[in-house]
């Protein structure tokens, strides 16, 4: 059997980026996926993902997102595709309780401002009158609202990003195997054999980017650390073509006293006449095999009532489409990028706790640097398993 240098298991956001970056450095790499990416069965679908440079989730993420922005632009130039829409990002707290958390991070707006100041990231701090006049779709903001506007942020398109990186990876010689569920990573001397139902491949090293299925493939300690949380995405019809909504930045809005009082959304994609809005939940964890992909009418009604009505003007309760997605969450809401403590030659890149897409291109680059040069330019130690005692 041919022994590849590297096998990448899972070709979603992290895996596609890793495959591409390894292949363009001349590494003999094979990628395997249980579906045919880009697909809508994992965590990387739904048209848009927010990106912002002032990453309140931690300073360790700041260089990753900057590198990702550079890489999206490089790929756009090479392939002539559109991946990164720099429409700005507006983060607002319009609540009597400004300490609302996002991704488990309290005081999200204020701490984002602090981080932007510290890192010299271009931004504006807005009060309620400025939010009302510049972004009237959020007119119902309270007088004590505070806003952070970052013109360099916006959104990326997850499916085209994955597609583009897989296209380039193949151009650089990567092999891909799709529609195969990897069931085992068996040691074989110095190598690993990656098994699926009707075949296997072998590699000197395996990088697992299996998203919500990571724990089932990797076992301990990942089955102790990772929780898979079902999330819902909604596209509501616009009341009428609205210049304000079509010029909207991406946004994150805390509007009440609890962590549930938070939604985020995107400018309408031109010509679609709808706005994507979502909330998030970290309390109910599921087994990926039991994931319900249906959205009940009560869930649509609840979403509009609690997160849109009276908060965002110009959006109707009429649902255009909806989708289910998952966050794979660690105990501290951070990433895990590290060697598997119990499987030699296996590295894990995943569990991105619901905020990984904006960093994915750079994570792929860092993994390739680690493999080819022995270490990455971005410090990945904050994402190691050591912080959980492994
Ligand atoms: C609703 C929602 C909103 C989000 N919003 C944002 C946002 O605004 N900004 C942001 O930065 N991030 C956001 N995220 C997070 C981001 O999308 C994820 O962190 C990222 O997409 C995860 O990528 P991944 O590669 O880890 O997982 P995935 O993309 O799910 O990839 C995992 C891949 O592994 C394959 N696989 C799994 N097991 C096996 C196996 N045994 N054999 C073969 N193949 C296997 C799967 O088929 C899949 O293709 C959001 C996530 C969700 C769900």
Automatic annotation (TrEMBL):
* Top-tier EC class: oxidoreductase
EC number in record:
1.5.3.2
**Residue ranges annotated for the FAD dependent oxidoreductase domain, each copy included:** 5-369
Asked if Manganese is a keyword of the record, the answer is: no
Q: Which GO terms describe its molecular function?
A: N-methyl-L-amino-acid oxidase activity
The Swiss-Prot or TrEMBL record lists the needed cofactor(s) as: FAD
Q: Which keywords does this Swiss-Prot/TrEMBL entry list?
A: FAD, Flavoprotein, Oxidoreductase
Recorded hits in InterPro entries, A to Z, give: FAD-dep_OxRdtase (IPR006076), FAD/NAD-bd_sf (IPR036188), MTOX (IPR045170)
- The reply to whether Oxidoreductase figures as a keyword in the UniProt entry is yes
Identify the Gene3D superfamilies for this entry: D-Amino Acid Oxidase, subunit A, domain 2, FAD/NAD(P)-binding domain
Q: Which domain of life is it from?
A: Bacteria
NCBIfam families membership: PRK11259.1
Q: What is this protein called?
A: N-methyl-L-tryptophan oxidase
């Amino acid at each position: 059997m041919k022994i590849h240098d590297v096998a990448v298991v899972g070709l979603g956001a992290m895996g596609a980026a890793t495959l591409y970056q390894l292949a363009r450095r001349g590494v003999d790499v094979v990628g395997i996926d249980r579906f045919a990416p880009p697909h809508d069965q994992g965590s990387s679908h739904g048209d848009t993902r927010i990106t912002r440079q002032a990453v309140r989730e931690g300073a360790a993420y700041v260089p990753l997102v900057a590198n990702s922005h550079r890489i999206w632009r490089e790929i756009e130039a090479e392939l002539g595709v559109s991946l990164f829409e720099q429409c700005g990002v507006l983060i607002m707290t319009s609540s009597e309780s400004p300490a609302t958390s996002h991704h488990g991070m309290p005081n999200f707006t204020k701490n984002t401002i602090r981080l932007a100041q510290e890192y010299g990231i271009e931004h504006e701090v807005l009060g309620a009158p400025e939010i009302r006049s510049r972004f009237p779709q959020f007119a119902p903001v309270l007088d004590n609202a505070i806003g952070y506007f970052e013109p360099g942020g916006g959104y990326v398109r997850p499916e085209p990003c994955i597609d583009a990186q897989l296209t380039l990876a193949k151009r650089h010689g990567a092999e891909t195997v799709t529609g195969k569920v990897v069931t085992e990573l068996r040691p074989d001397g110095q190598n690993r054999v990656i098994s699926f139902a009707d075949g296997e491949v072998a590699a000197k090293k395996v990088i697992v980017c299996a998203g919500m299925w990571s724990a089932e493939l990797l076992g301990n300690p990942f089955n102790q650390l990772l929780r898979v949380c079902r999330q819902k995405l909604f596209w509501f019809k616009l009341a009428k073509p609205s210049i304000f909504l079509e010029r909207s930045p991406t946004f994150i809005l805390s509007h009440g006293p609890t962590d549930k009082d938070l939604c985020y959304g995107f400018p309408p994609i031109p010509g679609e006449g709808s706005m994507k809005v979502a909330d998030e939940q970290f309390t109910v964890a599921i087994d990926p095999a039991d994931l319900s992909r249906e959205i009940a009418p009560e869930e649509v009604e609840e979403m509009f009532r609690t997160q849109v009505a009276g908060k965002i003007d110009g959006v109707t309760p009429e649902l255009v489409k909806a989708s289910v997605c998952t966050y794979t969450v660690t105990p501290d809401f951070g990433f895990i990028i590290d060697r598997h403590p119990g499987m030699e030659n296996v590295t894990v890149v995943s569990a991105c706790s619901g905020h990984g897409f904006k960093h994915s291109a750079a994570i792929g680059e860092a993994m390739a640097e680690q493999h080819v040069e022995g270490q990455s330019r971005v410090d990945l130690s904050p994402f190691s398993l050591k912080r959980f005692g492994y």
